[in-house]
Amino acid sequence: MSLSGSVAIAGVHEHPTRWAPDKTEFQIMAESARGALADAGLTIEDVDGLFAASMTMGAMGTVELAEYLDLKPDYVDGTNIGGSSFVAHVNHAAAAIHAGLCQVALILYGSTAASNAMAIGTGMGGGGRGWADAFSAPYGVTTVGSYALVARLHMDRYGTKPEELAEIAVAMRTHAGLNPVAKMRQPITVEDVLASRVISDPLHLLDCCIISDGGGAVVVTSAERAADLAKPPVLLLGCGEALAHQETGSPDLMRIAARQSGERAFAMAGVTRDDIDLCTIYDSFTITVLTTLENLGFCEVGEGGAFVGDGRIRLGGALPVNPDGGGLSSNHPGMRGIFLVVEATRQLRGECGDRQVDGARLACVHGTGGTLGMSHSGATLILGAA
Amino acid sequence: MKYVYPDDLAILVHHRGPTTLPGAPPDLSGGVTVLCLHDAGGNGHIFAGVMDALAADHSPLAYDQPGHGRSGGLDSLGAVEAMAAHATAVADVLGVEHPVLLGEGMGAAVALEVAMSSPGWPQALVLCGAAAASYDEGPAIEQLAAVVAGRARREFDGSGYAPDTARDVYKAAFAEWVKTDPRATLEDLRALDAWEPGERLGTVACPVLVVCGVHTEDARRAASADLAERTPGARLVELPAAGRRGVVEQPAALAGIVAQVAA
Questions:
Q1: Nearest by CB to B150, which of A115, A117, A196?
Q2: How far apart are CA B211 and CA A149, in angstroms?
Q3: Tens-level pLDDT at each residue, chain B (263 residues)
Q4: CA B236 vs CA A205, A365, B171, B199: distances in Å
């Protein structure tokens, strides 16, 4: 039996907080778990698979989390490949459920990145542990700096304009205006983006994701079991993962992990890019969205600037991206992948009210983790309404 | 410190003395309760020095307004009247009765609003940092609006302090100020700018001290003097060796003034 279509997302929850100085990461995870399990019509007693990662969880983090939740799972996965981790966790949970290693997987994320004043984008990229970091860390490469490197190359090689990147930020803010819990809802224009101060040339402040607190949870189980639960199941039709790195000093910065993970996910799902009704794409920076769309195959590499224009990625456009407002406007508590899964699931259930994509049946979810121009991870899902 | 939850929103309360169980207010049996109300964009920790100096004989309290410091919420309450209502709600949760209200800047306006809306509740007001009833916040609003739009950085501001103030003092004050989202600070300033007590100042029925650092710039000194003149029973007191931030520049001396009122 194929994995495609045999596993489903049965429950999701996005913690509404954007600022929670009175809470801990684990508290946010626990509250999110309660929400997602209630959404699925399950209880914590049903959970036998635990998947989690966070900005601060160390090697024993999942053990500590299990104790906090009073769980003794049969299957544990603490994979941490940055912001895409939770998209990858869906893949891993599906594989485990498909193999009979667990039946109900609980995927968790929680963070107090904002209230703990974490310097996420302007912190050092790469962590300084890899051999290649010895050649970049001394020069002060930051996370935002590595994404700016990709943006600058895109502009130089293909003539991409700052206005085209800015359109992505404007689209996300427009969507956030329809999301009552989004952190930044005040409308902005392309001119506002370009007038905001430069953080790392050519990226302006409003090209960069916000920093918030927050968290979420996803419940994955077999499609058969999900069919009997509280909400309509959302089927996992395709999935893929990939890692990209400096390739011994000769990477093509325009070829990101999304190419590899996306090809696998689309092939598994047996659908084409034209079949997709919406995307939820990790938008750490505007360039992340543009180059991800290219590498997922929605347009050719180099054509992303024109592709995102004319309202194509806005609600009502041909390919709405991040109807919740994304990390650029709704929330970005350090690692945002879980919200990509949550929003896609809600869209496919038709639960999103003012920001609902009409007739959404197929969604492409892609998470990016790490530093785009140096080393990063990618994980792609193709999700379908049952 | 502890969290309380008026209106289901987490509010961080700063207090002195032993901690208490969640849901139980701190011990307020010592002397008079002094409830400290912070400035625009500030938080309760700014009163740490004053609270330390008061703690031996009194029960000082401070809190972070919603959207400020380490309290919950993203936004300013948006109106001085709402801040005053919130202050009484926080005090109610904490079991505060007849406090001395110590307000700095916007907090001074909140204290006055409380005194006007709940006459008989505060036993006295100590207002410092130039209660802004007649101070033009326009330039500060314009600068913060640029920050909120992403067009300017939050600049380190060392102005307005007494000349001999140690650098660490205003560095610490700046560090507290940036703990609040500039959007909330901007809305605070707009709320303060829009607040006009007018003739209602005449209804203030408790003793009022308007404290003004001797090195305060002229416009703020004038605002302080104007406030003292317009408020019945108010007295203008000068704070030596301080500018507009007497709360952090001369916390012990300010605590002494508060203690005199509380005596």
A1: A196
A2: 54
A3: 899 999 889 999 999 998 888 888 999 999 999 999 999 999 999 999 999 999 999 999 999 999 999 999 999 999 999 999 999 999 999 999 999 999 999 999 999 999 999 999 999 999 998 765 666 788 889 999 999 999 999 888 778 899 999 999 989 999 999 899 999 999 999 999 999 998 999 999 999 999 999 999 888 899 899 999 999 989 999 999 999 999 999 999 999 999 999 87
A4: 45, 64, 28, 19
Rounded Cα–Cα distance for residues A137 and A128 (Å): 6
A358 touches chain B (CB under 8 A): no
- Chain A: nearest CA to B163, how far in angstroms? 31
The domain limits of chain A are 7-116+213-236, 133-211+238-385
Domains of chain B: 2-262 (3.40.50.1820)
Rounded to 10°, the helix A286-295/A162-176 angle is 100
- Is the domain spanning A133-211+238-385 CATH 3.40.225.10? The answer is no
Q: Cis link prior to B22 (omega < 30° from 0)?
A: no
Gap between the Cα atoms of A43 and A71, Å rounded: 12
Could you give the ipTM of this predicted complex? 0.86
Amino acid, single-letter form, for residue A273:
R
Q: For residue A185, what are the CA distances in angstroms to A56, A171, B187, B246?
A: 29, 12, 15, 37
Strands B234-239 and B208-213, bridge-based pairing = parallel
Instruction: Compute the nearest-CA separation of B11 from chain A (Å).
Output: 8
Torsion of CA A338, A339, A345, A347, to 10 degrees: -170
Spell out the CATH class of A7-116+213-236. Answer: alpha beta
Tell me if chain A has a CB within 8 Å of the CB of B178.
Answer: no
Helix B138-148 to helix B182-194 angle (10° resolution) is: 150
The rounded distance, in Å, linking the Cα atoms of A174 and A156 is 29
Q: Give the chain A residue nearest B154 (alpha carbons).
A: A197
Q: How is residue B215 written in tokens?
A: 């090195």
Residue A380 phi, psi (nearest 5): -125, 140
Fold agreement (A7-116+213-236, A133-211+238-385): yes
Query: CB distance from A355 to chain B under 8 Å?
Result: no
Give B-chain residues touching A21 at CB under 8 angstroms.
10, 12, 69-72
| Structural tokens at position A278 | 């919406």
Interface touch B74/A195, C-beta < 8 Å: no
Tokens of A155: 């502009």
